């Protein structure tokens, strides 16, 4: 049981690889676990300007881990999946379809043409 716990803590990056004894588990703090949350990693990797913006990006389905779209800010990211965090392919930030406001502004520019009706 102890080996399984250590293996899981190592795979999530909560416990460093050089600490291979159960005694180190007692020294873990809440911050060790919070640092592995998707919300924190999105902020630390520079995808968001704040932790709060990172949470919004995740909840609005703009962030994926590999090919998996993740919308849970408390998702614990494994060490091997950390480099795979990116904007989702369906997100406007990840080369997906433009957002609602941008599409609306583009349709106004394209639809207005030479009409100057809204100046009166």
Distinct helical segment count:
5
What is the overall pLDDT average?
88
- Give the overall shape: elongated
Strand element count: 3
Order of helices and strands: HHHHEEEH
Name the beta content range: 5-15%
**Low-confidence spans:** 114-120
Strand order of the largest sheet: 2-1-3
Tell me the distance between the termini: 77 Å
Main sheet properties: 3 strands, antiparallel
Report the helical percentage.
25-40%
- Helix/strand-derived category reads mainly alpha
Instruction: Tell me the radius of gyration.
Output: 21 Å
Describe the structure in your own words.
A hairpin with a 2-residue loop joins β1 (63-65) and β2. Helices cover 37% and strands 7% of the residues. Strands 2-1-3 form a three-stranded antiparallel β-sheet, with no helix packed on it. α3 (38-44) packs across α4 (51-59). It has 120 residues and is mostly helical.
């Amino acid at each position: 049981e102890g080996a399984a716990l250590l293996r899981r803590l190592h795979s999530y990056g909560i416990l460093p690889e050089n600490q291979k004894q159960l005694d180190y588990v007692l020294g873990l703090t809440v911050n060790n676990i919070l640092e592995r949350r998707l919300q924190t990693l999105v902020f630390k990797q520079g995808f968001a300007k704040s932790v709060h913006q990172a949470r919004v990006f995740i909840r609005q389905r703009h962030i994926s881990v590999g090919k998996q779209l993740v919308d849970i800010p408390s998702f614990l990211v494994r060490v091997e999946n950390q480099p795979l965090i990116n904007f989702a392919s369906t997100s406007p930030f990840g080369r997906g379809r433009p957002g609602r406001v941008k599409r609306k502004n583009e349709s106004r520019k394209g639809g207005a043409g030479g009409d100057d009706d809204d100046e009166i």
